[in-house]
Protein backbone atom coordinates (compact mmCIF):
# COMPACT_ATOMS: atom_id res chain seq x y z
CA UNK A 1 0.00 0.00 0.00
CA UNK A 2 1.00 3.62 -0.41
CA UNK A 3 3.16 5.03 2.38
CA UNK A 4 4.52 8.47 3.22
CA UNK A 5 8.04 7.47 4.26
CA UNK A 6 11.26 6.70 2.46
CA UNK A 7 14.89 6.05 3.37
CA UNK A 8 17.24 8.97 3.81
CA UNK A 9 19.86 7.48 1.49
CA UNK A 10 20.40 9.13 -1.89
CA UNK A 11 17.86 7.95 -4.45
CA UNK A 12 18.77 7.20 -8.05
CA UNK A 13 15.92 6.85 -10.51
CA UNK A 14 15.69 4.58 -13.55
CA UNK A 15 13.57 5.64 -16.49
CA UNK A 16 10.73 3.29 -17.43
CA UNK A 17 9.48 5.23 -20.45
CA UNK A 18 6.01 6.39 -21.46
CA UNK A 19 3.15 4.71 -19.62
CA UNK A 20 0.31 6.94 -20.82
CA UNK A 21 0.64 8.48 -24.28
CA UNK A 22 -1.72 11.32 -25.22
CA UNK A 23 -4.97 9.93 -26.54
CA UNK A 24 -8.22 11.46 -27.76
CA UNK A 25 -10.77 10.47 -25.15
CA UNK A 26 -13.41 12.49 -26.94
CA UNK A 27 -13.56 14.58 -30.06
CA UNK A 28 -11.98 17.88 -29.11
CA UNK A 29 -9.65 16.54 -26.39
CA UNK A 30 -6.57 15.54 -28.27
CA UNK A 31 -3.64 17.56 -26.91
CA UNK A 32 -1.38 16.91 -23.92
CA UNK A 33 -1.46 14.41 -21.08
CA UNK A 34 -0.18 16.76 -18.41
CA UNK A 35 0.40 17.11 -14.64
CA UNK A 36 0.21 13.43 -13.55
CA UNK A 37 -1.30 13.18 -10.07
CA UNK A 38 -1.52 9.61 -8.71
CA UNK A 39 -3.86 8.09 -6.13
CA UNK A 40 -3.66 4.49 -4.95
CA UNK A 41 -7.19 3.04 -5.14
CA UNK A 42 -6.35 -0.41 -3.72
CA UNK A 43 -3.60 -3.02 -3.75
CA UNK A 44 -3.99 -3.60 -7.48
CA UNK A 45 -5.12 -0.32 -9.06
CA UNK A 46 -3.43 3.05 -9.27
CA UNK A 47 -5.41 6.01 -10.58
CA UNK A 48 -3.52 8.78 -12.37
CA UNK A 49 -5.32 12.10 -12.76
CA UNK A 50 -4.06 14.37 -15.51
CA UNK A 51 -5.27 17.16 -17.74
CA UNK A 52 -5.72 17.43 -21.46
CA UNK A 53 -6.64 20.41 -23.60
CA UNK A 54 -9.59 21.08 -25.85
CA UNK A 55 -9.54 22.94 -29.14
CA UNK A 56 -9.75 26.25 -27.26
CA UNK A 57 -6.61 25.29 -25.26
CA UNK A 58 -8.61 24.91 -22.04
CA UNK A 59 -7.45 22.13 -19.71
CA UNK A 60 -9.88 19.54 -18.34
CA UNK A 61 -9.15 16.84 -15.75
CA UNK A 62 -9.39 13.14 -16.70
CA UNK A 63 -8.00 9.97 -15.16
CA UNK A 64 -6.66 6.57 -16.14
CA UNK A 65 -6.57 3.47 -13.91
CA UNK A 66 -3.42 1.39 -14.30
CA UNK A 67 -2.10 -1.81 -12.76
CA UNK A 68 0.02 -1.22 -9.66
CA UNK A 69 2.55 -3.87 -10.65
CA UNK A 70 2.63 -2.81 -14.32
CA UNK A 71 1.57 0.85 -14.64
CA UNK A 72 1.90 0.75 -18.44
CA UNK A 73 -1.12 -1.58 -18.48
CA UNK A 74 -4.22 0.62 -18.60
CA UNK A 75 -7.27 -0.93 -16.95
CA UNK A 76 -9.79 1.86 -17.50
CA UNK A 77 -9.98 5.48 -18.63
CA UNK A 78 -12.50 8.20 -17.89
CA UNK A 79 -14.42 8.98 -21.06
CA UNK A 80 -15.60 12.33 -19.74
CA UNK A 81 -13.80 14.96 -17.67
CA UNK A 82 -14.08 14.51 -13.93
CA UNK A 83 -13.53 18.26 -13.48
CA UNK A 84 -14.41 20.96 -16.01
CA UNK A 85 -13.31 24.61 -16.31
CA UNK A 86 -15.40 27.05 -14.34
CA UNK A 87 -17.90 29.60 -15.67
CA UNK A 88 -16.91 32.90 -17.25
CA UNK A 89 -15.44 35.37 -14.81
CA UNK A 90 -14.23 32.81 -12.27
CA UNK A 91 -10.63 31.95 -11.36
CA UNK A 92 -10.71 28.70 -13.36
CA UNK A 93 -12.68 29.68 -16.45
CA UNK A 94 -9.76 29.07 -18.84
CA UNK A 95 -8.82 25.63 -17.55
CA UNK A 96 -8.20 23.29 -14.61
CA UNK A 97 -5.20 21.07 -13.80
CA UNK A 98 -4.84 18.53 -10.97
CA UNK A 99 -1.94 19.13 -8.60
CA UNK A 100 -2.53 17.11 -5.39
CA UNK A 101 -5.04 14.43 -4.40
CA UNK A 102 -5.62 13.24 -0.84
CA UNK A 103 -8.10 10.97 0.97
CA UNK A 104 -10.15 12.63 3.70
CA UNK A 105 -12.32 10.05 5.48
CA UNK A 106 -14.78 8.78 2.84
CA UNK A 107 -14.04 11.63 0.42
CA UNK A 108 -11.25 12.35 -2.03
CA UNK A 109 -10.02 15.92 -2.17
CA UNK A 110 -8.37 17.32 -5.27
CA UNK A 111 -6.37 20.53 -5.14
CA UNK A 112 -6.33 21.93 -8.65
CA UNK A 113 -4.87 24.85 -10.56
CA UNK A 114 -7.37 27.26 -12.06
CA UNK A 115 -6.46 29.34 -15.11
CA UNK A 116 -7.72 32.68 -16.34
CA UNK A 117 -6.58 34.78 -19.30
CA UNK A 118 -5.81 38.44 -18.66
CA UNK A 119 -5.26 41.51 -20.79
CA UNK A 120 -2.25 42.91 -18.91
CA UNK A 121 -0.30 39.66 -18.46
CA UNK A 122 -0.73 36.38 -20.37
CA UNK A 123 -2.50 34.44 -17.60
CA UNK A 124 -3.28 34.11 -13.89
CA UNK A 125 -3.43 31.01 -11.68
CA UNK A 126 -4.85 30.14 -8.27
CA UNK A 127 -5.38 26.90 -6.35
CA UNK A 128 -8.88 25.52 -5.88
CA UNK A 129 -10.35 22.57 -4.00
CA UNK A 130 -12.77 20.00 -5.41
CA UNK A 131 -14.27 17.03 -3.55
CA UNK A 132 -15.35 13.59 -4.75
CA UNK A 133 -17.91 11.49 -2.92
CA UNK A 134 -18.05 8.68 -5.48
CA UNK A 135 -14.56 7.26 -5.12
CA UNK A 136 -12.82 9.82 -7.29
CA UNK A 137 -14.89 9.40 -10.45
CA UNK A 138 -16.34 12.92 -10.39
CA UNK A 139 -15.53 16.08 -8.43
CA UNK A 140 -17.48 19.11 -7.26
CA UNK A 141 -15.89 22.37 -6.20
CA UNK A 142 -15.84 22.88 -2.44
CA UNK A 143 -15.81 26.63 -3.03
CA UNK A 144 -16.50 28.81 -6.04
CA UNK A 145 -13.23 30.65 -5.43
CA UNK A 146 -9.66 29.53 -4.73
CA UNK A 147 -8.30 28.36 -1.38
CA UNK A 148 -4.77 29.63 -2.14
CA UNK A 149 -4.16 32.64 -4.34
CA UNK A 150 -3.22 36.30 -4.36
CA UNK A 151 -2.95 37.97 -0.95
CA UNK A 152 -1.87 41.32 0.43
CA UNK A 153 1.73 40.07 0.63
CA UNK A 154 1.65 37.65 -2.33
CA UNK A 155 -0.04 39.78 -4.99
CA UNK A 156 0.76 37.61 -8.01
CA UNK A 157 -0.38 34.12 -8.91
CA UNK A 158 0.03 30.77 -7.13
CA UNK A 159 0.01 27.46 -8.97
CA UNK A 160 1.35 23.93 -8.42
CA UNK A 161 0.97 22.50 -4.91
CA UNK A 162 1.57 19.35 -2.91
CA UNK A 163 -0.52 18.77 0.21
CA UNK A 164 0.29 16.46 3.12
CA UNK A 165 -2.09 15.85 6.03
CA UNK A 166 -0.69 14.92 9.44
CA UNK A 167 -2.36 14.38 12.80
CA UNK A 168 -1.42 17.91 13.83
CA UNK A 169 -1.85 20.02 10.68
CA UNK A 170 -2.10 20.21 6.92
CA UNK A 171 1.03 21.27 5.05
CA UNK A 172 1.39 22.68 1.53
CA UNK A 173 4.37 23.42 -0.71
CA UNK A 174 3.24 25.61 -3.59
CA UNK A 175 4.59 27.74 -6.42
CA UNK A 176 4.31 31.47 -5.78
CA UNK A 177 5.04 34.15 -8.36
CA UNK A 178 7.35 37.02 -7.43
CA UNK A 179 7.46 39.04 -10.65
CA UNK A 180 6.60 39.34 -14.32
CA UNK A 181 9.77 40.16 -16.24
CA UNK A 182 9.67 41.98 -19.57
CA UNK A 183 11.97 40.26 -22.08
CA UNK A 184 12.01 42.27 -25.31
CA UNK A 185 8.32 43.01 -25.05
CA UNK A 186 7.28 39.53 -23.88
CA UNK A 187 6.25 39.06 -20.25
CA UNK A 188 7.57 35.97 -18.46
CA UNK A 189 6.68 35.04 -14.84
CA UNK A 190 9.15 33.99 -12.13
CA UNK A 191 7.95 31.70 -9.35
CA UNK A 192 9.56 29.66 -6.61
CA UNK A 193 8.29 27.36 -3.84
CA UNK A 194 6.67 28.62 -0.67
CA UNK A 195 5.19 26.85 2.37
CA UNK A 196 1.76 27.18 4.01
CA UNK A 197 -0.17 25.46 6.79
CA UNK A 198 -3.84 24.84 7.57
CA UNK A 199 -5.91 23.38 10.38
CA UNK A 200 -8.56 21.95 8.06
CA UNK A 201 -7.15 21.84 4.52
CA UNK A 202 -9.41 24.70 3.42
CA UNK A 203 -8.26 27.89 5.17
CA UNK A 204 -4.54 28.24 4.48
CA UNK A 205 -2.07 30.55 6.25
CA UNK A 206 0.12 32.05 3.54
CA UNK A 207 2.91 33.79 5.41
CA UNK A 208 5.34 34.15 2.53
CA UNK A 209 7.76 31.53 3.84
CA UNK A 210 10.11 30.45 1.03
CA UNK A 211 10.76 26.70 0.91
CA UNK A 212 13.01 26.42 -2.18
CA UNK A 213 14.34 29.64 -3.65
CA UNK A 214 15.69 30.53 -7.08
CA UNK A 215 19.16 29.29 -7.97
CA UNK A 216 20.07 32.65 -9.48
CA UNK A 217 18.60 35.56 -11.45
CA UNK A 218 18.49 33.49 -14.65
CA UNK A 219 16.15 30.90 -13.15
CA UNK A 220 12.47 31.55 -13.76
CA UNK A 221 10.62 28.62 -12.21
CA UNK A 222 10.85 26.26 -9.26
CA UNK A 223 7.60 24.32 -9.29
CA UNK A 224 5.56 21.14 -8.73
CA UNK A 225 6.95 20.04 -5.38
CA UNK A 226 6.27 16.45 -4.34
CA UNK A 227 7.18 15.59 -0.75
CA UNK A 228 7.67 12.32 1.12
CA UNK A 229 8.61 11.92 4.76
CA UNK A 230 11.58 9.93 6.07
CA UNK A 231 10.97 9.57 9.78
CA UNK A 232 11.77 13.00 11.18
CA UNK A 233 13.05 14.40 7.87
CA UNK A 234 11.62 15.08 4.43
CA UNK A 235 12.60 14.59 0.79
CA UNK A 236 11.29 16.74 -2.05
CA UNK A 237 11.44 16.52 -5.83
CA UNK A 238 10.56 19.50 -8.01
CA UNK A 239 11.14 20.85 -11.50
CA UNK A 240 13.04 24.01 -12.39
CA UNK A 241 13.80 25.92 -15.57
CA UNK A 242 15.52 29.04 -16.86
CA UNK A 243 13.98 32.31 -17.93
CA UNK A 244 14.74 32.10 -21.67
CA UNK A 245 14.85 29.38 -24.34
CA UNK A 246 13.15 26.96 -21.95
CA UNK A 247 10.89 25.34 -24.52
CA UNK A 248 13.50 23.81 -26.81
CA UNK A 249 16.91 24.02 -25.13
CA UNK A 250 17.62 20.98 -22.94
CA UNK A 251 20.06 22.96 -20.81
CA UNK A 252 17.40 25.56 -19.99
CA UNK A 253 14.13 23.57 -20.07
CA UNK A 254 12.47 21.98 -17.07
CA UNK A 255 14.55 19.33 -15.34
CA UNK A 256 13.99 17.59 -12.02
CA UNK A 257 15.88 18.50 -8.86
CA UNK A 258 15.60 17.40 -5.25
CA UNK A 259 15.87 18.80 -1.73
CA UNK A 260 16.13 17.54 1.84
CA UNK A 261 14.70 19.03 5.03
CA UNK A 262 14.62 18.26 8.73
CA UNK A 263 11.34 20.07 9.37
CA UNK A 264 9.58 20.46 6.00
CA UNK A 265 10.18 24.23 6.03
CA UNK A 266 13.94 24.72 5.65
CA UNK A 267 15.27 22.89 2.60
CA UNK A 268 18.69 21.97 1.24
CA UNK A 269 18.42 22.08 -2.55
CA UNK A 270 20.29 19.92 -5.03
CA UNK A 271 20.20 20.30 -8.81
CA UNK A 272 22.27 17.18 -9.44
CA UNK A 273 20.71 14.83 -11.98
CA UNK A 274 18.33 12.35 -10.38
CA UNK A 275 18.44 9.67 -13.09
CA UNK A 276 20.83 6.73 -12.85
CA UNK A 277 23.59 6.35 -15.39
CA UNK A 278 22.60 3.86 -18.04
CA UNK A 279 19.06 5.24 -18.31
CA UNK A 280 19.48 8.06 -20.85
CA UNK A 281 16.62 10.29 -22.03
CA UNK A 282 14.34 8.99 -24.76
CA UNK A 283 14.90 10.85 -27.99
CA UNK A 284 11.93 12.99 -28.87
CA UNK A 285 10.19 12.06 -25.60
CA UNK A 286 12.07 13.52 -22.61
CA UNK A 287 15.46 14.45 -24.03
CA UNK A 288 14.63 18.18 -23.87
CA UNK A 289 12.35 18.44 -20.85
CA UNK A 290 11.50 16.58 -17.64
CA UNK A 291 8.71 18.34 -15.75
CA UNK A 292 5.96 18.14 -13.12
CA UNK A 293 7.13 15.13 -11.04
CA UNK A 294 4.82 13.37 -8.61
CA UNK A 295 6.22 10.63 -6.36
CA UNK A 296 4.63 7.96 -4.21
CA UNK A 297 5.83 4.82 -2.47
CA UNK A 298 4.13 1.50 -3.16
CA UNK A 299 5.44 -1.52 -1.27
CA UNK A 300 9.17 -1.83 -1.90
CA UNK A 301 9.62 0.80 -4.58
CA UNK A 302 9.17 4.45 -5.37
CA UNK A 303 7.30 5.55 -8.49
CA UNK A 304 7.79 8.93 -10.10
CA UNK A 305 5.37 10.11 -12.75
CA UNK A 306 6.41 13.09 -14.84
CA UNK A 307 6.02 14.82 -18.20
CA UNK A 308 8.59 15.06 -20.98
CA UNK A 309 8.98 17.34 -23.97
CA UNK A 310 6.37 19.94 -24.75
CA UNK A 311 4.94 20.21 -21.22
CA UNK A 312 3.06 16.92 -21.59
CA UNK A 313 2.69 16.61 -25.35
CA UNK A 314 4.57 13.28 -25.24
CA UNK A 315 2.41 11.82 -22.48
CA UNK A 316 3.11 10.64 -18.93
CA UNK A 317 6.42 8.95 -18.19
CA UNK A 318 7.51 6.91 -15.19
CA UNK A 319 10.75 6.36 -13.32
CA UNK A 320 11.33 3.87 -10.51
CA UNK A 321 13.66 3.50 -7.55
CA UNK A 322 13.93 0.68 -5.00
CA UNK A 323 13.25 1.25 -1.35
CA UNK A 324 16.30 0.02 0.53
CA UNK A 325 17.31 -0.02 4.16
CA UNK A 326 20.06 2.47 4.89
CA UNK A 327 23.37 0.69 5.34
CA UNK A 328 22.24 -2.48 3.59
CA UNK A 329 24.33 -3.88 0.76
Describe the structure.
The structure is a single chain. By secondary structure, this protein is mainly β. It has a single domain, classed as Glycosyl hydrolase domain, family 43 (Tachylectin-2, Chain A, 5 Propeller). Helices cover 1% and strands 53% of the residues. The protein is built from one helix and 21 strands. The strands form five sheets. Strands 1-19-20-21-2 form a five-stranded antiparallel beta sheet. Strands 3-4-5-6 form a four-stranded antiparallel beta sheet. β12 and β13 form a beta hairpin. It is globular and about 45 Å long. It starts with a strand and ends in a 7-residue tail after the last strand.
Q: Count up the helices.
A: 1
* Text of the CATH class: Mainly Beta
Report low-confidence residues grouped into runs of 5 or more: 325-329
Spatial extent as radius of gyration: 18 Å
Structurally, the number of domains stands at: 1
Ends distance: 25 Å
Strand content: over 45%
CATH topology-level fold name: Tachylectin-2, Chain A
Number of strands: 21
Largest sheet: 5 strands, antiparallel
- Give, in spatial order, the strands making up the sheet with the most strands: 1-19-20-21-2
**Protein structure class:** mainly beta
**CATH architectural grouping:** 5 Propeller
Name the quaternary structure: single chain
Series of H and E elements: EEEEEEEEEEEEEEEEEEEEHE
Which overall shape is indicated by the principal axes computed on the Cα atoms? globular
Helix content: under 10%
Superfamily at the CATH H level?
Glycosyl hydrolase domain, family 43
Residue-averaged pLDDT: 92
